[in-house]
């Protein structure tokens, strides 16, 4: 049985036509929101300290925590605050009566905004705390919005799996497709695709919104992205209820995903023209998957949905290792870029 299709799959209409104008509009809009946001914070006298130093310190400490400690173990994961986002949305999902498309769409918006507010608005109060407390809590909360070590750990476990069944069990936790009948080649492909897609969701987007809006911005993105993962599917149950969450995730990821594509190209020997040509010829594939395909010169396939890189060799564990190295190089590059942006903006 096929898994649900996400609302947020890239289509030709999203990347053809006026992508440059749309990108410029979003960039200008983000800059305007950045100015208005921090003016509002200053008007409330919540931001009276050296914002530049605080933001860079929080950014650096959070990355250090991720690289040295990483994510919480699975046994205590249910107590992790980010997990509560999906639990709250699942609760709203259960109490929502189906049958009327309009009502489902409205409730999908209301519940999404309520969840976003519940987890993000408290972050606005962080600057009210003593500076040391603000930095410590800010670092811990920001760390919850991204993971670098988690992507590496997932890829490493996949290529080190002892047998096909254990590999299927591991990969099945990370991807939405049915892995029960996948062979080694397609499990490797699914792993690489997941690592590539999550470069945007798990690293670039949180960094991007932190650079412009601090911990609050990163948390808003994390909540929206989590809601998309919970209800952003074109199934009978979620086609209306999850529409807002899916489209909000599309909008927030639009610029970061294109930044991620550029980073993947810079971190490898891929050629811009090859990537963008195939982006415009391939429907239903995330841009970073296309970029990773050409960065590794490997065929990536989701059976029944898409195939990228027909002329390349099949995916192997060697390609998984290379994908992780490329993602790490991309992350390091973007982290330095974010520090420069923070220094300019603040």
Write down the secondary-structure element order: HHHHHHHHHHHHEEH
Q: Uncertain regions: pLDDT < 50 for 5+ in a row?
A: 1-18
Please count the beta strands (DSSP E, at least 2 residues each): 2
Helix content: 55-70%
- Based on secondary structure, the structural category is mainly alpha
Supply the number of helical segments: 13
End-to-end Cα distance: 51 Å
Q: What would the average pLDDT be, to the nearest integer?
A: 86
Instruction: Assess the beta-strand content as a share of residues.
Output: under 5%
Radius of gyration: 20 Å
Number of domains: 1
- Structural shape: globular
> Order of strands across the biggest sheet?
1-2
- Major sheet: size, sense and barrel closure? 2 strands, antiparallel
What does this structure look like?
The chain is mostly helical and about 350 residues long. The chain has helices at about 10-15, 20-45, 50-70, 80-95, 100-120, 130-145, 150-160, 165-170, 185-230, 245-265, 270-280, 285-295, 315-345, and strands at about 300, 305-310. The chain has one domain. The chain starts with 11 loop residues before the first helix and ends with a helix. The model is unreliable at about 1-20 (pLDDT under 50).
Question: Concise description?
Answer:
It is built from 13 helices and two strands; from the N terminus they run ααααααααααααββα. With 346 residues, it is mainly α.
